[in-house]
Amino acid sequence: MNMTDTPQILLHHHLKKLRLPTFMAEYDKLAGQCASENKNHIQYLSRLTELEMIERERRMIERRIKAAKFPAMKSLDSFDFKAMPSLNKPLVMELARCEYMDRYENVIALGPSGTGKTHIALGLGLAACQKGLKVRFITAAALVHELIEANDEKRLLRLQRQLTSQNLLIIDELGFVPLSKTGAELLFEVISQCYERGSLIITSNLPFDEWTQTFGSERLTGALLDRLTHHIHILEMNGDSYRLKQSKRKTRNNKPK
């Protein structure tokens, strides 16, 4: 071994132990840049630590997004608010700051199928991940299926703990299919456990007065709405299908000139 290589090998070993991969990848190149710009050692170290922090934050956001299990990556930037004039855009942009989550408030997006409710929920979920918050996205039908399966396999408490440990739980498509009595009770339990511990975003094609169709019990529906609507932001998304408008626009844009 060349003796001049020893400090470099030792440095690599220490950086690996300290889990500073960006330091390891960038320190040599950045040293040359800082030397050519006459930067002192404090400025050099400051730049190096900044690069490490930026990369660490990027990886953390990636992990949060992966853990959220989004079915697609959709941001609020890609939503055409002009196509859905009933939607309160200033409120959506305010919610994207995620301050409502500090107060354990909930968001419910209501409107017919195809109006972009899932897109908005995904956009708000992505905004939360970018702030380093724990998010989980799941459809109501899939969540109920998971809860019933976990209950049958005696692992319900573990699943409930996972769900209630999230900063934000997004339940999509509530109301698309009626729930069994067991399914409705298990979903009610999860929503109750999330109450004032975290925030919920729920999308539904049904107005509140028709939620009894899904839960099958006026008592259960009333108790659920009491919890959900205590701290709530309602996004009204009524009008023509957002998806249909987007599809027509793409068709027009793709037509040969």
How would you explain this protein's 3D organization?
With 257 residues, the chain is an alpha/beta fold. The chain folds into 2 domains: 3-65, no CATH class; 69-248, Rossmann fold, CATH 3.40.50. It has 12 helices and 5 strands. It has helices spanning 6-17, 21-36, 41-68, 89-95, 99-102, 117-130, 140-152, 156-164, 181-194, 212-215, 218-228, 242-254; strands at 106-110, 135-139, 168-174, 199-204, 232-236. The chain has a 5-stranded parallel beta sheet with strand order 2-3-4-1-5. Helix 3 runs antiparallel to helix 6 (117-130). The longest helix has 28 residues, at 41-68. The protein is elongated, with a radius of gyration of 24 Å.
Quick structural gist:
With 257 residues, the chain is α/β, with parallel strands linked by helices. It has helices at 6-17, 21-36, 41-68, 89-95, 99-102, 117-130, 140-152, 156-164, 181-194, 212-215, 218-228, 242-254, and strands spanning 106-110, 135-139, 168-174, 199-204, 232-236. Helix 7 packs antiparallel against helix 8 and helix 7 (140-152) packs across helix 9.
Secondary structure elements and pairings:
Blueprint: H1 6-17, H2 21-36, H3 41-68, H4 89-95, H5 99-102, E1 106-110, H6 117-130, E2 135-139, H7 140-152, H8 156-164, E3 168-174, H9 181-194, E4 199-204, H10 212-215, H11 218-228, E5 232-236, H12 242-254
Parallel strand pairs: 1-4, 1-5, 2-3, 3-4
Number of helices: 12
- Write down the Rg: 24 Å
For the record, give the distance between the C-alpha atoms at the N and C termini, rounded to a whole number: 67 Å
Overall CATH architecture of the largest domain = 3-Layer(aba) Sandwich
Q: What gross morphology would you assign?
A: elongated
Give me the side-by-side strand order of the main sheet.
2-3-4-1-5
